[in-house]
Amino acid sequence: MSHAIRFHTVGGADVLRWETVDVPAPGAGEVTVRHTAIGVNFIDTYIRSGLYPAPLPSGLGTEAAGVVEAIGPGVDGIAIGDRVGYVGGPLGAYSERRNLAADKLVPLPDGISDEIAAASMLAGMTARYLLKCTRPVRPGDTLLWHAAAGGVGQIAVQWAKALGATVIGTVGSDAKADIARALGADHVINYRRENFAERVRDITGGHGVPVVFDSVGKDTFAGSIDSLALRGMLVSFGNASGAVPPFSPLLLSQKGSLYLTRPTLGHYTATRAELLETAADLFDVLLSGQVRVQPGQRYALKDAAQAHADLEARLTTGSTILVP
């Protein structure tokens, strides 16, 4: 028998339960992974709260690292004892062990610890597709990144600087401002004290930025639009403050023939080749030292509810992991 975090009704962090679960032998094309570190991400709170509906009862979590314990029929290229990581797939990463499709696993290279993998794969692969695929960042670009001290933000600030960009970051406290500056952000705005759209205009000589990366959602949407240069792009990839309310597409015309996209990682890693390429690119920048990641918080797996409460209260910085 094994244990997992599950929930039977949507709601606050208190709906999460520590339960005993059965893990059968892996089926065809599957392997059993014993988790050693599990990533906690804001999307997990969306699923738990019901913003992103899931069939109930349900497990939770889409990112983890661990060791292969058993292999089902028809699996090639993976051996018992291999270190692997994954992002996506069926919910259930908040568990001691689980079965997964072998083609969703990524081998972890020497030099990347299990904790670093669990703390960085979803955030890092998200930063990678946003900066290199959704709106490729070029040397000399200036960009605005909201939540620059968050899990994705900390990686993205470093990666954007490595790509030659000027980075404007928003944060919610002086402590988080210090973190963003230490990571290389050129300009840091505390949105609790300043109008970030006005500051962006000041920094850019009134022009605005060509791209805004916004994971906050409702609270920043209008300001993000007002921060954009002519024909700029708003990349909305999260809802930390709630979903963006409906609006008329005419707004995009009125504000400068703007572009708006709402991407998700799964559409950029839809094939095995895309998944491996994205992961390899992330591991390369980590191993090179261009991007550095350390888990900001560690919780015992059974304390996942506390991890969620702290994340939603904006009490965390960087990545959060659960340890079985």
What does this structure look like?
One of its GO terms (molecular function) is NADPH binding. There is one protein chain. This protein is of the alpha/beta class. The protein folds into two domains: 2-120 and 266-323, Alpha-Beta Complex (Quinone Oxidoreductase, Chain A, domain 1); 139-262, NAD(P)-binding Rossmann-like Domain (Rossmann fold, 3-Layer(aba) Sandwich). It is 30% helix and 26% strand. It is built from nine helices and 16 strands. Strand 15 (297-300), helix 9 (304-312) and strand 16 form a beta-alpha-beta unit. The chain is globular and about 60 Å long.
Number of helices: 9
CATH classification class of the largest domain: Alpha Beta
How far apart lie the N and C ends?
A: 14 Å
Q: How many strands, which pairing sense, and closed or not: the largest β-sheet?
A: 7 strands, mixed
Helix content: 25-40%
Low-confidence stretches: none
CATH H-tier superfamily of the largest domain: Medium-chain alcohol dehydrogenases, catalytic domain
**Strand count:** 16
> Could you state the order of secondary-structure elements as H and E?
EEEHEEEEEHEHEHEHEHEHEHEHE
Strand content: 25-35%
State the secondary-structure class.
alpha/beta
Radius of gyration: 20 Å
Number of domains: 2
CATH topology name of the largest domain, in short, is Quinone Oxidoreductase, Chain A, domain 1
Mean pLDDT: 95
What would the principal axes of the Cα set say about the shape?
globular
CATH level-two architecture of the largest domain: Alpha-Beta Complex
